[in-house]
Design a protein that fits this description.
Elements: H1 3-9, E1 11-15, H2 23-27, E2 31-37, H3 46-55, E3 65-70, H4 76-94, H5 108-126
Length: 134
């Protein structure tokens, strides 16, 4: 994964933020949107692309574009940094190869312990006095 390549390939758009903020919010475009086309990137190998497409399929638009946005800060630059970090973390998590589960056998000691407990319980129940026979 080439982070610099991914950042260069992403498009940033500054738009007006919603919510409270007084007059500042009406005239300053502080919200930042990041648009990224996952299929066309050169920053990921084919295998990484396929894994990312599969994991991020629910977050992609119909045209295969990943859109992230941030309006946490009143500063456009700070929002751009935040959205870039989120984007890189998201891609890193998406391309992680899942560990292959190794099958293990139940230890012999565990099986014997289970059988001993079972036998003890059945003996306890068998030795109980029958209330109808007196």
């Amino acid at each position: 994964m080439d982070e610099q390549q991914l950042i260069q390939e992403s498009d940033y758009k500054a738009v007006r933020s919603s919510g409270a903020g007084g007059q500042n919010v009406n005239k300053v475009s502080s919200k930042v949107e990041l648009h990224f086309r996952l299929e066309e990137t050169q920053g990921l190998s084919e295998e990484e692309k396929q894994r990312a497409l599969k994991k991020l399929s629910s977050r992609l638009t119909n045209s295969g574009e990943l859109i992230l946005q941030c309006d946490e800060s009143r500063s456009q630059h700070k929002n751009k940094e935040i959205v870039t970090q989120r984007f890189l973390e998201l891609v890193k998590q998406a391309i992680v190869k899942p560990k292959i589960r190794k099958k293990t056998k139940t230890p012999k000691a565990a099986k014997l312990k289970r059988l001993r407990e079972k036998k003890k319980l059945s003996e306890k129940k068998a030795t109980r006095k029958d209330p109808l026979k007196d």
